[in-house]
Design a protein that fits this description.
Elements lengths: L1 H10 L7 E5 L3 E9 L9 H5 L18 H13 L10 E6 L1 E3 L1 H6 L7 E3 L13 H10 L3 E7 L5 H8 L4 H11 L30 H19 L5 E2 L8 H9 L4 E4 L8 E2 L5 E4 L2 E2 L10 H13 L4 E4 L13 H18 L4 E2 L2 H10 L1 E2 L6 E2 L2 E5 L11
Parallel strand pairs: 2-3, 2-12, 2-13, 3-6, 7-8, 8-10, 11-12
Antiparallel strand pairs: 1-16, 4-5, 9-10, 14-15
């Protein structure tokens, strides 16, 4: 099925896809960004306050880095929740594969950006005993599925300009890097996202194809070495991806692209042969004190009624506890949500991005237990098939 569809998209290059895929059973996908990315170090709070006013004003001021204990609590939760076939819930974990080598950058007088790939551990001053072992245990247990987010989350050309700036921006970012903190994005939006430089002219904001291909190939290689598997799914930092990004992903082995909630359409193949998925449910207790399980259930129910998979966005900050305990509330609410889904939908399936790709390709799941067949149908895109709550 996949080869026929890919050939069809190749014949229609430049046109918006007209077909998507609907599923005859309730499918739940958990997608999560920013794993492996360091933020505010616990011992740097006072120093960072010199450069960041009102620190703690928003949740992302307290973004730090997950601990082995955070991952243990998450794995325990996922392992407790089983679908109608006994498969556990699985979190699609999108990794940032390198962090700033703060000590080396400072020694170089901030003239160049040096990185520490996750295969070499964490930057100097960062301690997370057992973290990498916890990643691996969750992957081996079928609870985590590692995917590609990026090499860095920020746009390097944008940050290079700031590092050389003698003014306020330069003072702020150099001060943060001396404290072992890369950035706080909502306070510094000018750092952009890895493939996207916000202060360039609109048509030049995305990095050129060659640079994107180099960055993506580098990240894919680090992930392959770290987890002994090539990336099959990817999500661009800030959801900022263009056709050059997609082509580079495909060349590095990616076959599934994760998109934000702005374009909520049925899963479909793009012109590059990549299966495009759109997130529909924002499950972010760390930044949403009013998060409603009832509202999430209503959206999931509508997804299933219309053949959409319920693709849930839940960023890594929700499981952090090092600076502020976001983990406890998130685990409690996610436990309630998954239990409610399992109770209401007796034929529910927990699937990963790769599982969805397999379903579109073959109509069945063959991982983690007995083969499961799922009805998959092709539907022509129309305004009524683009998912909108209450539409």
């Amino acid at each position: 099925m996949r080869n026929v569809l890919t050939q069809a998209w190749q014949r229609g290059r430049g046109f918006v896809p007209t077909h998507g895929f609907a599923f005859g059973r309730p499918l739940v996908v958990l997608q999560s960004d920013d794993w492996g990315r360091v933020g505010l170090r616990e011992d740097a709070w006072e120093e960072v306050q010199r450069f960041v006013p009102n620190l703690g004003e928003r949740a992302y001021d307290c973004y730090s880095l997950e601990t082995a204990e955070d991952l243990g609590a998450l794995a325990s939760l996922l392992g407790r929740h089983r679908d109608s076939t006994g498969r556990p819930a699985c979190l699609q974990m999108n990794f940032i594969l390198a962090n700033v080598d703060f000590a080396r950058v400072a020694a170089d007088d901030f003239r160049n950006i040096h990185l520490v790939p996750l295969t070499h551990g964490l930057p100097e001053g960062w301690e997370r005993p057992g973290l990498f072992e916890a990643y691996q245990e969750g992957i081996e247990g079928g609870l985590f599925s590692p995917s590609l987010h990026g090499t860095t989350h920020f746009c390097r050309p944008a940050v290079e300009r700031a590092l050389a700036d003698p003014g306020e921006r330069g003072l702020q970012i150099r001060g943060l890097w001396r404290a072992g903190v890369p950035y706080i994005h909502w306070r510094m939006p000018w750092i952009g996202f890895e493939y996207w430089d916000p202060e360039q002219e609109e048509e030049k904001r995305f990095l050129n194809p060659e640079t994107q291909e180099q960055l993506i190939a580098s990240a894919a290689e680090i992930l392959s070495k770290l987890f002994s598997r090539r990336p099959r799914s990817a999500c661009a930092p800030g959801y900022r991806a263009n056709n050059d990004t997609q082509r580079a992903w495909f060349k590095s082995g990616v076959r599934v692209a994760q998109n934000g909630p702005s374009d909520q359409t049925l899963p479909h193949f793009d012109r590059n042969g990549i299966l495009q998925l759109s997130r529909i449910i924002d499950f972010e207790p760390a930044i949403d004190p009013q998060l409603s399980i009832a509202a999430c259930m209503a959206t999931a129910s509508e997804c299933f009624a219309r053949g959409f998979p319920a693709i849930i966005s839940i960023h890594s900050i929700n499981f952090h506890s090092a600076i502020k305990d976001f983990r406890t509330r998130t685990i409690e609410l996610l436990d309630q949500f998954l239990a409610a889904l399992e109770s209401r939908f007796s034929d529910l399936l927990y699937v990963s991005d790769e599982d969805l790709y397999q379903l579109v390709d073959t109509g069945k799941l063959e991982s983690q237990g007995p083969v499961v067949r799922v009805p998959v149908s092709r539907r022509i895109f129309a305004p009524g098939l683009a998912f909108r709550r209450g539409a």
